[in-house]
Structure formats: C-alpha cells, structure tokens
Design goal:
Beta-Lactamase; eight-stranded mixed beta sheet; 2 domains; Rossmann fold; alpha/beta
Length: 402
C-alpha cells in the first residue's frame, strides 16, 4: 500500500514524501530513505516496492530544494547540507510517531549526498536508529566544496548552488561526526565511481565501530541493472538481519559477556582499571544503553567512579535516587520508567529506565553498578539475573585496599 505524507518544518516549509507499506499487519521494520543531490524520491520507487514486498515499510521524501523536480518547498538555491540535515531530523522525529513503525527497527538509508546527510544525522538518534544503509555516500563533498570555494565556483553538476553551500559544507568534519554512531552500518560502493571515489567509504569503514563495505566491481556512481538489484538485495537482507520479530528484544549473551569480562579483569590487581574496563565492555555489549558505570560507597554517600556515557552526578546520598535506594536495601532495583520513581535523580535527560546492582566486598556494600537506557522497560528479569552474575565477577576483582 502506498500513501502520500507531508511533514512540516519549523519554518513552515512542507516536506513531501511517500510511504510504502507491506500487505500485512504491522508494526513493521521501517527504512527512512534520503535521495541524492538533484534527485527525488520518485527515482527510487522500485526499491521502495521491493522493501515493502519483503515486509519492510519504506518512508521516502524530497528534501526542500533537494532537486529541480522536488515536490517539497524551497529551491536548490536555498538548500545546503545543514538544511537537508534539518529536513531529515523532522522526518525521523515524525516517522517515530507513526503507528505502523516498529520503534525497535528503524533504519536510515541514503544514496550519494543523502547518504552523507543520513550518516551525519544518525549519531543524534543513535538510540532510535537500528542501522544505516549508505549507497555510495558522498563523503567527498567537504573536499569538493573546498576546491570550489577556493576557485570561486558556486556550481555543481551544472546546477547553481546556494550562496553558502560550499562554505558550509567544507567546514563539516564528516568522519569525526559519523564515528559517534555505534550501530551497524552497511555501505555499498562501486569501485569505478569517479564522482565519489570508493576510498571515502573505505575511510568511513575504518572510523565506524561496526561497518561493512560491499564493493560492486565495475559499478560507478549510481547503480543500474544487476548492480541495482545486488544493492537492493543486500540492503533488504541487512535490515532483516538487524531487526527482530515485533515484540522480541535483542538479547544480551551473558555467558559470552561473562567470559569476556573474566578474560579482561581476572588477576588484574587494580580496582579502578578493572571497573573502567568493565564499564566499557558492558556499555559496548548491551544495546539501548546510554550510561554504564559505577559508584563507590564512602561513608553515607556514593561517589562517581569509572563510567561510559554523559557526565553524571558526582555524589548521591544513601537512600536517595535509584542508586542510593539500592544501597539502603542491599538489593538490585529495576525501574521500568524512571519518571515514576519517587526521588529519581536525573543525570541524563534521555534516560527512561534503569537497573542498579549493589556490589559487595567482605559482606559490606562496596558500591553499585548502574545502567541506564533511553527505552522504557528496557531491563528484563533475564537482564537482572545476567547482570547480577556479572556483578559477582566484578566483586572478585575489587581489591580489599580500595
């Protein structure tokens, strides 16, 4: 089923798009597609149809001023990278509100400049985006824009650019920004691409934490025929491989996590180093977690220890907040929604659920291990059991002198 959709930007501009839905009952894994420079989503309807036939909803749209035939408001002389990033933010936020969308399986997909825009925006939504699919992403744009700026050339592919396009684009630190996205990324690039050399995707693969680069031999910029079908098939399989049936949660393998942690901290006589490595390992191993760390009990206060995530509260009195309460009752606390926990101490406004596991040494509370998630009801009974097993491993690595 196809239906038109309109998104409204803050400046009142309309972003026009199309939704392709599978012929079955949702919610569905959902792809948000961004077209390239001068193009329109209507150039990719055959791919949208293929995704829908495979059970994946496809949301495509025209950037404001994104091409001569754009259905959205604005002209190409108003468009730059930052304006397209704003467009995509609006589309992501509104798409996440749609009833047919499986909120655990939303993917960004983009081709050429749309691929670069997707990659730049993804880190801002890294807890909502399950993966990225980037076809010949135009990470060359900052370099090309700098060359045009130095020559005083304000055209690209024969099209007059916005007055600030080159100056804006050339100052974007692409690889530093995109490296903040930690989810899976699939890049597909032709090794005969003269417009965007494949080396730019090769560099992206190195800075991403979890990226694969599929090379289409002999393909240029833009895929046709067999290359188009190969890219389409690989992209659909990527979505299917990185989402779960509706209602199922991606499960942490606590046996593997336990083995990895033991190998990392066993026989290491330095508590701070062990806690730091444990925080990093847990943070990387668990999905939908935005903070993982430790607090050490000193007197009647918990003091911040090694952690991964945003800066946190330095001191928490015993009996206050989730961490302080866990110390007081000497038990693990699982909070489905922190907004409903009396006396919750907010450190990261994005956090919605939390689990706190007390750590013991010689029968006394040493501190706590704290995990936060941006998802409501993130932590299951299986997580509680698994994380308590992890806590027992950490307790053995705590030095008596610390």
């Amino acid at each position: 089923m196809k239906e038109r959709i309109t998104f409204i930007k803050g400046n009142g501009y309309r972003i026009e798009g199309m939704i392709n839905l599978p012929d079955s009952q949702g919610p569905f894994p959902t792809v948000i597609f961004s077209h390239g420079f001068g193009a329109t989503f209507r150039n990719f309807t055959h791919h949208a149809d293929a995704f829908a036939r495979s059970g994946v909803a496809f949301v495509a749209f025209d950037f404001c001023g994104g091409g001569p035939d754009s259905l959205s408001d604005g002209s190409m002389q108003e468009m730059n990278i930052l304006s397209e990033m704003d467009d995509l933010r609006v589309v992501i936020e509104k798409t996440l509100e749609l009833e047919f969308v499986d909120k655990e399986a939303v993917f960004l997909m983009g081709e050429s400049m749309g691929g670069m825009v997707s990659a730049l925006v993804a880190p801002e939504f890294k807890y909502a985006i399950a993966g990225q699919i980037l076809w010949y992403p135009a990470f060359v744009i900052p370099d090309d824009s700098r060359k045009r700026f130095e020559k005083g050339d304000n055209t690209a592919l024969g099209i007059q650019l916005a007055p600030d396009f080159n100056e804006t684009a050339m100052n974007i630190d692409v690889y530093n920004i995109i490296s903040e996205y930690t989810g899976p990324v699939l890049m597909i690039h032709g090794d005969e691409d003269k417009l965007v050399p494949i080396s730019y995707s090769g560099k992206a693969q190195r800075v991403y934490k979890n990226a694969a680069l599929t090379v289409l031999h002999g393909a240029g910029h833009g895929f046709d025929g067999d290359d188009s079908m190969a890219a389409q098939t690989a992209s659909i399989r990527f979505v299917q491989a990185n989402c779960n049936p509706v209602g199922e949660r991606r499960i942490t393998d606590y046996n593997l996590l336990s083995q990895s942690l033991i190998a990392l901290i066993e026989d290491v006589p330095h508590t701070i180093a062990n806690l730091a490595n444990a925080a990093a390992l847990i943070y990387e191993a668990m999905v939908d977690v935005n903070w993982a760390g430790f607090y050490k009990l000193k007197g009647e206060k918990l003091i911040l220890g090694p952690f991964q995530g945003k800066p946190a509260c330095i001191e928490i009195p015993v009996g206050h907040g989730v961490c302080g309460t866990a110390v007081k009752i000497r038990k693990t606390i699982v909070v489905e929604d922190v907004h409903n926990f009396p006396g919750h101490i907010p450190c990261d406004s994005a956090s919605r659920s939390e689990i706190v596991v007390p750590l013991f040494k010689n029968g006394k509370v040493y501190g706590v291990r704290d995990l936060d998630s941006p998802k409501v009801n993130r932590f299951t009974p299986e997580d509680k059991e698994g994380l308590e097993r992890i806590a027992s491993i950490i307790e053995k690595a705590i030095s008596c002198e610390d």
